[in-house]
Design goal:
There is one protein chain. The chain is α+β, with helices and mostly antiparallel strands. The chain has two domains: 51 residues, no CATH class; 33 residues. It contains three helices and two strands. Strands 1-2 form a two-stranded antiparallel ribbon. A hairpin with a 2-residue loop joins strand 1 and strand 2. It starts with 17 loop residues before the first helix and ends in a 12-residue tail after the last helix.
Length: 110
């Protein structure tokens, strides 16, 4: 299946993925080397021809993905906005200097 139409959750593996490249044109029952993480091989249990997906389904999934990305970005923005002034104690260096806390008040000129 073309990568643009892939959806692993629906059992639709994109042709350009490492797993697809490893198992392409292999028969059911074949064990194929596939070193990813702690896996060393995959065994092909069943092979069947895929049905063509209607273009509307592809567009629907793309829109769902776009919406999910937009929600994730909005969440990241909200988290950043809530934390922006709190990481370092939210201080104003000008106020510290005006209070005389930013100078060496313990030094003497003698």
């Amino acid at each position: 299946m073309p990568d643009a139409q892939a959806d692993l959750a629906q059992g639709l593996l994109g042709a350009g993925t490492p797993l697809a490249r490893a198992i392409v044109q292999q028969a059911a029952g074949t064990t194929v080397p596939y070193a990813v993480g702690d896996m060393v091989a995959v065994r092909i249990l069943h092979v069947e021809a895929g049905a063509d997906l209607p273009e509307a389904d592809v567009e629907r999934r793309r829109e769902m993905l776009r919406q999910a990305v937009a929600r994730a970005e909005a969440t990241n923005d909200a988290i950043f906005a809530l934390a922006a002034g709190s990481k370092w104690g939210d201080y104003d260096p000008g106020k510290i200097e005006a209070a005389g806390l930013g100078t060496d008040s313990g030094a003497s000129d003698t």
